[in-house]
Design goal:
Layout: E1 2-10, E2 24-34, H1 38-46, H2 50-54, E3 61-66, E4 75-82, E5 85-97, E6 101-108, E7 113-124, E8 127-137, H3 146-175, E9 184-188, H4 193-204, E10 208-214, E11 229-232, E12 249-252, H5 265-287, E13 295-301, E14 312-313, H6 323-333, H7 336-340, E15 344-350, E16 352-354, H8 359-369, E17 382-383, E18 385-387, H9 388-400, E19 406-410, E20 416-417, H10 418-429, H11 439-446, H12 448-454, E21 459-460, H13 463-467, H14 477-485
Parallel strand pairs: 9-10, 9-12, 10-11, 12-13, 13-15, 14-21, 15-19, 16-18
Antiparallel strand pairs: 1-2, 2-8, 3-4, 4-5, 5-6, 6-7, 7-8, 17-20
Helix pairs in contact: 4-9, 5-6, 10-14, 11-12
C-alpha cells in the first residue's frame, strides 16, 4: 500500500518582509505499509546509514556535520546542490517518541519553511504504516513562477516515492533473514560505488561493519586497527589478519578501476595485480586464521565470459579469451585458499551496474541529456545490466544464503542489446538517440577498452540467484532507470 498527496494550506504565520501577505504553506503526505513492526521500522531509521539509504542517487548530498543519533535537539547539516547551486541545509530533530515518530525542522535551507514528520502506525505485530508528512513553503513564493513551483512539487513527490520504495525493499530483504543472527562483516573497497552502498545497507540491517582501508608500508598492520577500521596493503606480500578475529564474513570489492583511462600495458598490469594479487594475499590470510570467517563473498565480473554474441550464458559457461576474461578467471582462482580452509566462498560476477553516482551509466548521462547519445557499433551486442540496489541485494543474499557458493552471476534476468539499452535510456530522459558511435570511432577513442567494455557481447543469465530464490527489485530495464534517475513515467 502506497499513497501520496499534496495540498496547499494557508498559514497564519508570516514569513518574509511583508507580514500582511502570509506565505502559503503546503502539506505533502505519503503513506506506505511496511513488513515489520512500528518499533522495527523506527529502529531502522535510527541506524547509521539510514540517511544515506534514503537519499536518492540523483541528489548531490554530503553530510557536513551530524550530532550523534536522532534525539531531541540533535542537528544534521548537509551540503546539497540545487539546480547546480550549492546549498547548506541545517535540520533539527524534535518530537522524539520511541517507536512512533520524530520530526525534522529546517533551521536553514532552500525552503521558506520545511517541517517533516516521520510517523509509524502499528497495524499488527509484523506490519505498520510509515507516514511522511511535510509542511513546506516555497522560497520567495511571490517570485516563484507557477511552472517552477509545480516542478518543485513533482520533485518532492519523486524524492519521497524513492525513499518509500527503498524503505519497503530494504526492510523486506532484512526481514527474510530475521531468524539469522546479525554478523560482523569486513568489507574492502568500502568507499567505492558498490562498497559504500553495501555498508549503509548492512548497518541499517543491524550488522556491524569493519572497513578494510587501503594503506601501505609493510607486511603487517598490527596496531593499525580500530573497532570499525583496519588498514591493509593489497600490494604487500602478506596480510596480518589478526585484527579481523571474530569477523563472521568478508566482502572483497577492492580493485583498480577498469574504466579510468586507456589500457596501456602499465594500466593492464595494475588492473590484473590489484585483483589477483590482493585477493590471493587476503584469502591466504583468512585461511591462516585460528578463527576464520564463515563466508567470503568476492567480486568478479561478467567480463569472465568475453565476447559471446547472442549465446545464453550461465555460471557453468566456460570463460572467454579476452584480457578481462583472463583477469576474472585468475581473480576468482586467487580465492581458492579460503575455500580450501573450509570458508564458504561465493564469487559474484557483476554486470553493468546502473547508478548515476558512478560506473557506465554516469558516463553516459551527459551526452544523452544533450541529445548526443546513441548506440555503440551496430548495437547488437548484449549488455547484461543490473540496478545498484540489486547488486547490494545480491551481495547480502550471498552472505545470508548458506547454500550459495562458487560463481554467482549478478545481472538482471532480462539482458538487452546495446540498441535496446540506448533507446530505453533516451525514452526515460526524453531525449533523441540519433548520434551513434561507430565501432572504429570507439576503438580510436578507447583502444582495447572499447572492444572489451562497449563492443563485446555477453548475454548472461542469473541462474543461481533465481534458483536460490533471490527476489529482484528491478528486473525491468526501464523501471530500473526511472528509479535510479528519478524519472517517473
Amino acid at each position: 500500500m502506497t499513497s501520496s498527496s499534496t495540498t496547499p494550506r494557508p498559514s497564519a504565520d508570516a514569513k518574509g518582509a511583508d507580514a500582511a501577505e502570509p506565505t502559503k504553506r503546503c502539506t505533502y503526505v505519503r503513506r506506505s505499509e511496511l513488513p515489520v513492526s512500528a518499533e522495527a521500522a523506527f529502529a531502522w531509521h535510527m541506524c547509521p546509514g539510514a540517511l544515506e539509504r534514503l537519499t536518492p542517487p540523483w541528489v548531490s548530498m554530503r553530510v557536513v556535520r551530524r550530532d550523534p543519533g536522532i534525539r531531541e535537539g540533535a542537528q544534521v547539516e548537509l551540503a546539497l546542490s540545487v539546480a547546480g547551486v550549492p546549498v547548506r541545509w541545517l535540520a533539527e530533530h524534535h518530537d522524539f517518541q520511541w517507536g512512533r515518530g520524530f520530526s525534522d525542522l529546517q533551521r536553514r535551507g532552500p525552503f521558506a519553511h520545511w517541517h517533516h514528520h516521520h510517523r509509524f502506525e502499528p497495524l499488527a505485530a509484523d506490519r505498520c504504516v510509515l507516514e511522511d508528512c511535510v509542511e513546506y513553503a516555497l522560497p520567495a513564493e511571490r517570485l516563484t513562477a507557477p511552472l517552477a513551483a509545480a516542478r518543485i512539487v513533482r520533485q518532492v513527490d519523486t524524492m519521497f516515492a524513492y525513499r518509500h520504495a527503498v524503505t519497503v525493499a530494504d526492510l523486506t530483504a532484512h526481514a527474510r533473514h530475521k531468524e539469522q543472527a546479525t554478523m560482523r562483516i569486513a568489507v574492502t573497497g568500502s568507499s567505492g560505488l558498490v562498497g559504500s552502498e553495501l555498508v549503509n545497507f548492512l548497518t541499517t540491517g543491524g550488522h556491524e561493519v569493519v572497513r578494510l582501508v587501503r594503506g601501505s608500508g609493510g607486511t603487517s598492520n598490527a596496531g593499525a586497527a580500530s573497532h570499525d577500521r583496519v588498514v591493509w596493503d593489497p600490494t604487500a606480500d602478506r596480510f596480518d589478519a589478526a585484527p579481523l578475529d571474530g569477523v563472521d564474513a568478508v566482502v572483497h570489492l577492492a580493485g583498480e578501476s577498469i574504466a579510468s583511462g586507456r589500457w596501456t600495458d602499465m594500466q593492464k598490469r595494475r588492473i590484473r595485480e590489484s585483483r589477483v594479487h590482493g585477493t590471493r594475499v587476503l584469502s591466504e590470510a583468512l585461511a591462516a586464521m585460528a578463527n576464520p570467517p564463515r563466508v567470503y563473498v568476492g567480486a568478479s565480473a561478467i567480463g569472465y565470459y568475453g565476447d559471446r554474441g547472442d549465446e545464453s550464458l550461465d555460471e557453468d559457461s566456460p570463460p572467454g579469451d579476452l584480457f578481462l576474461s583472463g583477469v576474472c578467471r585468475d581473480w576468482e582462482a586467487a580465492s581458492q585458499p579460503a575455500a580450501d580452509a573450509g570458508i564458504r566462498v561465493a564469487l559474484t560476477r557483476l554486470g553493468v551496474v546502473l547508478s548515476p553516482k558512478g560506473g557506465a551509466l554516469s558516463k553516459m548521462l551527459t551526452p544523452f541529456r544533450l541529445g548526443a547519445g546513441g548506440r555503440v557499433g551496430d548495437g547488437r551486442q548484449y549488455w547484461s545490466w543490473v540496478a545498484i540496489d540489486d547488486v547490494i541485494g545480491a551481495l547480502h543474499h550471498a552472505l545470508m544464503t548458506d547454500s550459495l557458493a562458487g560463481p554467482v552471476n549478478v545481472v538482471a534476468p532480462h539482458p538487452v542489446t546495446n540498441l535496446e539499452f540506448t533507446k530505453t535510456l533516451g525514452r526515460v530522459l526524453r531525449r533523441p538517440t540519433v548520434a551513434p558511435m561507430p565501432a572504429f570511432a570507439a576503438r580510436l577513442l578507447l583502444g582495447q577498452m572499447a572492444d572489451e567494455l562497449l563492443l563485446a557481447s555477453a548475454r548472461v543469465e542469473p541462474q543461481r540467484l533465481l534458483e536460490s530464490h533471490y527476489h529482484f527489485r528491478h528486473p525491468n530495464l526501464e523501471d530500473a532507470l526511472r528509479h535510479v534517475l528519478g524519472r517517473p513515467g
